[in-house]
Amino acid sequence: MEQTKALLAVLQHRSPWRRPVWFMRQAGRYLDEYRRTRAQAGSFLDLCYNPDLATEVTLQPLRRFDLDAAILFADILLLPQAMGVDLSFQAGEGPVLSPVRTEADVNRLRREEAAADLTPVYETVRNLRAALPAHVTLIGFCGAPWTVATYMVEGGSSPERLRARLAAMRAEPWFDALMDRLIEASAAYLAEQVKAGAEVVQIFDTWAGDLGDGLREKYVIRPVREIIRRLREKGAEVPVIGFARGIGAAQLQFARETGVAAVGCEAGMPVSYMRDVLTPEVVVQGNLDPLAVIAGGDVLREGVRRLLTLPKERHIFNLGHGFRPETPVEHVQEMVRLIRSEDDAG
To answer: Is 301 considered catalytic here?
Structure first.
């Protein structure tokens, strides 16, 4: 069979020549070569904004593993930085942002035009599109407005994101205005990535599970639906994968009401639910627990085997979240070997 792009085939409702595989955080600290390149860059943000080095770290996992996609190396917080928020990454602490908590703070933020400041990212996309093997799909991405807003309101990482959740519950006018600005800027950012060569985009809503009925519709589903609508208005017709982590049984509603081509499922999602409820309506992506890759052995083999029961024309093999830094590279190699053994078996 002709080796076309398996990931694109599944997202476009065609039969793939093999089950598509890629991993969230597939470029990262579990690879020695990534750590060396990061040290060469000087800082995490310098790495993100250096097209040559960002291209290099994006390609590194493809040299080790037989994957069907490369995902642009960047960070979801580059966009709020372009919108005017101060951003730094502190060792051992993660991101630190100048907080957005008032109407005045929101009014200082740039809108759609912020995407124009991210030209190094688009240069990385162009570099990657030229460098990738013919069967590998290039994925662009952004953070979903809800998740990005939580970092902006909290001023960085927060275990419970209480300020942002309370602002959402109270429907604070400044918070709703912040969400609208993020929708606008995110759509422009993704459209520029597509123009540069991204063939698929993923919207990461890591903290979507924070919100229950009513709030989920307003702050998770509506923003993703609106971003997709704006992408189409801008002529960007690429498939969109929505990763709304932690929403459980609301994945079906999310798929129906946003128009995503695939839903990324968190590790706790039962495979039976993915197979019986979701795959008749939408492509599923996921959802091996990253800890199973660290554990290796029978745990890893059983986790892979369970996911291979999903129909390969409706499934993208991935993790339920990203690789952890302590992941053994040889376990990743074994996981890919197990998945590819299905292809060998016919």
So the answer is: no
* Measured distance CA(257)–CA(59) in Å, rounded: 34
| Residue that has been written with the tokens 């990738």 in this structure | 132
Say whether 75 is catalytic: yes
Would residue 181 show up in a list of annotated catalytic residues for this protein? Answer: no
What span, in angstroms and rounded, lies between the C-alpha atoms of 229 and 324?
Answer: 34
Write out pLDDT tens, residues 105-132: 999 999 999 999 999 999 999 999 999 9
Q: Report the predicted TM-score, pTM, of the whole model to 2 decimal places.
A: 0.97
As a whole-number percent, the residues of the chain with pLDDT over 70 amount to 99
In the residue annotation, 151 being an active-site residue is answered as yes
Out of 68, 75, 105, 289, which one is annotated catalytic? 75
Give residues with Cβ within 8 angstroms of 198, minimum separation 6: 72, 125, 129, 138, 139, 140, 190, 238
Considering the candidates 38, 165, 230, 314, report the single residue annotated as catalytic: 38
- pLDDT confidence bin for 146, thresholds 50/70/90: very high
| C-alpha distance from residue 44 to each of 150, 159, 236 (Å) | 21, 22, 29
Catalytic residue among 30, 49, 151, 189: 151
Q: Which distant-in-sequence residues (6+ apart) come within 8 Å of 20 by Cβ?
A: 6, 7, 9, 10, 68, 69, 137, 316, 317
Find residue 242's DSSP bridge partners: 203, 263
